[in-house]
Structure formats: structure tokens, C-alpha cells
Amino acid sequence: MSANNRQAHSPEYYPGHSCEDKASGRLLLDQITDKWSVSILFALCSKPLRFNEIKRCMDGITQKSLTQCLRRLERNGIIARRVIPSSQIAVEYSITPLGRTLEAPFQALFNWTIEYSSDVTLAQAEFDARTTE
Amino acid sequence: MSANNRQAHSPEYYPGHSCEDKASGRLLLDQITDKWSVSILFALCSKPLRFNEIKRCMDGITQKSLTQCLRRLERNGIIARRVIPSSQIAVEYSITPLGRTLEAPFQALFNWTIEYSSDVTLAQAEFDARTTE
DNA sequence: CGGAATCCTCGAAGATACTG
DNA sequence: CAGTATCTTCGAGGATTCCG
Q1: What is the pLDDT confidence band of residue B133, given thresholds at 50, 70 and 90?
Q2: What is the reported pTM?
Q3: At what angle do helices B19-32 and A37-46 cross, to 10 degrees?
Q4: For B9-109, where are the E strands, in sequence order?
């Protein structure tokens, strides 16, 4: 807001929040807006899924990446991991109440991609044409 | 270098079913939810800024990363680049109408990080305690 | 001032193999 | 089935230099 002050080492250009909010906010965003997390969260929003079920949805993901992503989401309290004892090991992942609170913001972002994807595509084409000539 | 040895990374389009929407949506999300784009967009929401002004805001960003990020945002039609002829070259970056439509979804996400950061921190502490013992 | 061009590193992500 | 354990590669990102 009132951020006309320019300093070399402590930029204060942020509307309404302090530097720490901004930095930690971005750090947290990095944790949850990565390549797969949004898709995984959406998948789990409808119903709990098992490891390989998720893997099948996220076509192209490796087991390692999926494991890492699920761990991070679990650590951040977004999803829950439940081991189902049976003849074959089964692990069910489900969304937590905290994870539910992310559904709306993510949906808003996703809706944006749907609504404006054509505008973006058009802008890309124009940019590419402009820079190729 | 030969492309033979290189594993083509898996195609992102999947025939037919509902995952396709999410996949393409994710591709677009990857373009705009990267490490710096959100912060840059927020910065430009208040007012247009010049290259080094943005650089000063994004503490820690390198010139190269900033250039790449600005190019991508410009290509996607989110921001506009305007060269101001003067004794010294000046380049002003501003948000486009299309970019404006992203402000609300991003703000929602950012507000989430503010609102629930303590919950996440708590979840992390519990997870770490659980997995250390 | 606002970049482009190089060089370089370092860690994320892939491939593969093994296990409870 | 749901992972772990290694090894390797590869490319994004940092540091530096130069330039209109």
C-alpha cells in the first residue's frame, strides 16, 4: 500500500504484510504448488485413494516422486496416510480437514486455467510471432 | 549431443478421460505458480515497476532468473513490457487485464498461507516427532 | 539500465533393482 | 502392494562478464 520507501536491503513493497509473511508465505506456497501436489489434492478430494491408484491418475509420475510428494503433503498436514493391514499391504491416502481448506483456493486457480486458457494461448501465439519475425 | 540416449519425458496428454483437463491445467499452473511469479504479480498489482525495482523487491533473485520469469509472464499475457526511450534505457513492466484476473485467486492462496501457516507448522512438528522416535 | 552470453555447480528427478 | 536404496543424468539456477 504505502510503500514508496525504497531501501537496498529491506524491500517493503508488499501490500499489507511484513517481509517475513511474504517470505514464509512463498516458502509455504512452494511446498504445495509444486508439479504434482495440486493434482493429487484434487484426486483425493473426491475420495481416498491407494498409492498405486494415485500413481495411475498421475500419469508420468515416478514412484519416487510420488512418494516424496505424498510425504511432504502428509508432513504439512494436508493429507493423511493410513496403513490397512491385510494379506497384501495396502496404504490409503485421504485428505485432512486442513487439506480441505485448500480445496477452494486451488479450485479457484484451476477454474482460472479453464476460463482463460484460450487467452493465454492467444497471448503466447502473439508473443511468439512477435519475437520470430 | 545425441538425442538417442535421452529418454523423452513422458507426453502430457492423455487420451480421453477426465485426467486430461487436469493435466493441461497443471501445465498452465506450472507456468504461473513458480518460485517467483506470484510475488512478482503481487508487486506489479500495486503499480508498474522497472526491472531493477522488481529485482530489489525479490530479494535473492538473480538477474537471469528474473529475466526468464518476466519473459514467461509476458509471453503468457500476464504482464506487459514497455521500453521507455531516454538517456538511459528504462523498461517498465505492468500487469495486463488478463493478469488482473489472476490477482484474486493468488490472493486467496496467499491468504490461505497466512491463515493456516500455524496449523501447517504444527502438523510438521507432529510429523517430525512421529518419525524421529 | 536492462539485459545477453558463458561457465559451472548441485540437487531434483529418472532408471533400475531389491524388499517386507 | 508400497515402498526403499543406489546410481546417474541433466538442466534449472547462480556467478560472472560484457554490451547497446
Answers
A1: low
A2: 0.82
A3: 140
A4: 49-50, 79-84, 90-95
Contact indicator for B123, A28 with CB cutoff of 8 Å: no
Q: Exposed, middle or buried, A17 (CB in 10 Å: 0-12/13-18/19+)?
A: middle
Q: Which nucleotides of D are covered by protein (CB under 7 A)?
A: 1-6, 10-11, 13-17, 20
Q: A118 to chain B: nearest residue by CA?
A: B76
How confident is the model over A5-28, as pLDDT tens digits? 333 333 333 444 444 456 677 778
Chain A residue numbers with beta carbons less than 8 Å from the beta carbon of B115 are 101
pLDDT band at residue B104 under the 50/70/90 scheme: very high
Which residues, 6 or more positions from A50, have their beta carbon under 8 angstroms from its beta carbon? A90, A91, A92, A93
Number of H helices, E strands in chain A: 5, 3
